[in-house]
Design a protein that fits this description.
five-stranded mixed sheet, 32% helix, globular, three-stranded mixed sheet, 5 helices, Collagenase (Catalytic Domain)
Length: 187
């Protein structure tokens, strides 16, 4: 990792509905592959800080229309950032990890390039999907790839999850470029 580049700081907030036994699985089963990818792509260290049981932050009702839920999360994070002397620099990310989907069809949400994101633990690729969007990756630039076993697999940020396909556990070449360009400077 480059010493001259600011590290990526990922604050992972576990919603109160995520059981501690499930929380223990997140670093290795849900985060590891996308974090390794982002570090390779950007040449930046990724510092992860796990937070739980924070009144007003990890206890709100996240089920509903995704835009309203995300806007509520952004507001709560704004207060938390202010109270705790954190930053809105583009290398900071505030991830709410939930047990369930936001609604019948949405597993996670962020605005492209935004510091705040929400991801359920319904599918392994969800966190990588939303984290990718937060760093400029798009559905249009995601792709299907064959893995070394000849299985058709989805890259992170692929728009329509199909349980018959494998997980590529990586970003497409174009989305790797999008992420690198987004984080080219520390502004």
């Amino acid at each position: 990792m480059s010493a001259s580049k600011q590290p990526i700081r990922l604050l992972v907030f576990y919603h109160d509905d995520v059981d501690p036994s499930l929380q223990r699985l997140v670093p290795r089963n849900y985060l590891q592959d996308c974090i390794i990818e982002i570090q390779k792509i950007t040449g930046r260290e990724c510092i992860i800080d796990y937070r739980r049981s924070i009144a007003g932050v990890t206890d709100f009702n996240y089920k509903g229309h995704e835009k309203a839920v995300l806007d509520e999360w952004i507001g709560r994070v704004g207060v938390y950032v202010e109270q705790n002397g954190l930053s809105w620099k583009k290398t900071y990310r505030y991830l709410l990890v939930t047990k369930d989907k936001l609604n019948d069809r949405v597993l996670g949400v962020t605005y492209e390039g935004n510091n705040c994101l929400i991801s359920s633990l319904v599918a392994y690729q969800n966190i990588g999907h939303e984290l990718g969007h937060s760093f400029g990756a798009t559905h249009e630039d995601a792709e299907l790839q064959y893995n070394s076993f000849g299985v058709l697999s989805e890259t992170f940020v692929y728009p329509h999850r199909d349980g018959k396909r494998g997980n590529a556990y990586r970003y497409s070449l174009k989305n790797r470029e999008n992420i690198a360009n987004f984080l080219r400077s520390d502004d």
